[in-house]
Amino acid sequence: MMNRPSSFAHEHLLHRLYRIQQQCRHIPPQAMQQVAIDYQLPLSQVAAVVEFYAFFSTHPRGRFDLLFSNCTSCGYLADGENLLQILCQQLQVIPGKTRADGLVSIGEASCIGTCDHGPSMLVNGFPVIGLNAVKLAQVAQLVANEIPLPQWPAAWLEISDTVYRRDLLLSERLIPGSALQHALRSGASETLMIIQRSGLRGRGGAGFDTGKKWQLCREAAGETRYVVCNADEGEPGTFKDRLLLHEQAGAMLEGMTLCARIIGAQQGFVYLRGEYRYLLPHLQAELEHRRKLNLLGVNILGQIGFDFDIDIVIGAGAYICGEESALIESLEGKPGIPRIRPPFPVTHGYLAQPTVVNNIETFIAAAQIAMHGADWFKTSGTSTSSGSKLLSISGDCEKPGIYEYPFGVTIRQVLGDCGAADAQAVQIGGPAGTLLGATEFERTIAFDDVSTGGSVLIFGQSRDLFAIHRNFAHFFAHESCGFCAPCRIGTQLLKNSLDTIAANRGSVHALEELQQLGKIVKHQSHCGLGHTAANHVLDGLRQFPQAFSDRLQPQFTARFDLDQALADARQVAHRDDAAAHLDQKR
Ligand SMILES: Cc1cc2nc3c(=O)[nH]c(=O)nc-3n(C[C@H](O)[C@H](O)[C@H](O)COP(=O)(O)O)c2cc1C
Ligand code: SF4
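Above: inputs. Below: predicted complex with iron/sulfur cluster.
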């Protein structure tokens, strides 16, 4: 199949670096220099990009590079077994390092979007699902015998989507071009009015009025306009966009094209998370199909001057790139550091031009609204939250998968439907979202009650909630982009505090300190990641204080373990005798 040449003058910088990483297992200094010359960039900028993204490295990774997801649902700590440690022992690898012969490296990745398939890992960037101790023994054999990934059992690599409930969006199948034909007949202004009347709000988390966003972009001064689909889906516990990319990619592209018609854009981008690279051939085929149908390209559907096409840009393992201004930086081939706002992307987005960024689900809803009308959409949901919401449900329930509900559904109903009878708590909207205990299960999924991008993590009675908080704190400390001090330092301090408590060194003042720290991170940080990174701790302290307080030491305990801190020095000195330990009596 002949793909249309990309709109970029060069192959996208992230794609070029990805190829080098694949070939060399890292990005060597000479390669960085060559890239700097080819792209006419300062070497320091190329090095900054390599440094920023988790999927690039400056030291060689193994020919088999295995990254275990450390999410609370698809993570490697399954059923009390530490799967990462098991495989490291079997393959004689130190976690986070590459084996001396270069065969294999084993490390961790943030959630890889397979939470409905149990413990999972990326192998050379591709997900392998449903891990357990038995399967890992086979993995060890396959790696030891250097069997290439495509020859591994096919079932391990097949990411199926289980949909338990379909509502407004998932019950509809958009005939390619039908929404665009409606829009062309009605005209761009009237179609925009329909989107506005429908009350559609963004499905990516923040819930901004979509019609308003498109109108602001349409009216903004600028030479060129852009449409960007946010397919970064990095929030731990979210995988509903994965289903939409599989099942409704055509409707997503139609929604983007509709937006282009309304705002007057000629170029669009789908920013796809690196963990979903395996979906690329499917998406490219869908683009090609639409070009053949004249639903993309020049004079779309015979309308003179209606020119629009779409490129796919693949991220490289940075959760922050889901934040729209960081995403735009990444699209521009830079580290994904959120911009200072205002100005907002609608006026100063990609290449400082007016840009609409929307979630996949939002674009699909917009296409369906253009097709069926505003009233059709408003038949579902509540007065302030019209339409439906896709939820990715995982954790301690009988039926993990995707559920679509009208807005206004209670948490209790959701838990009942997915078979989570013994839930003690549920985290809505991922680690950045809201932690709810049983007394709040009558609350509803809605923008003015419990708002969510789609992640629902369920914790049964036997779950240790403190361990969940610790996992979330590690996630944010790892994913903070480091640009501003309150988030960079605050997320580390939150992580360190919870680690100290876990090591039985938490003092009676620890909860007060966590509160204070949490508030600083929430209120002083630069972007949405920092604003939400401490929510789980603040919610947890309010709702489940015992999960923390039970672990505190009533007597004075030194927070710092000096003997432990000297472990590296002992290793260097090849000493482990009693005299080399501070807490050993001679
Ligand atoms: C740290 C962070 C991560 C985000 N990740 C995503 C994401 O993966 N997908 C998404 O659609 N929006 C994400 N967002 C929200 C986007 O910034 C933006 O609001 C959204 O893409 C706008 O689309 P919508 O109006 O259709 O929701 C994230 C925001 C933050 C602060
Ligand atoms: S809040 Fe965190 S993620 Fe956002 S800019 Fe600051 S350091 Fe980066």
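The longest helix spans residues 485-502.
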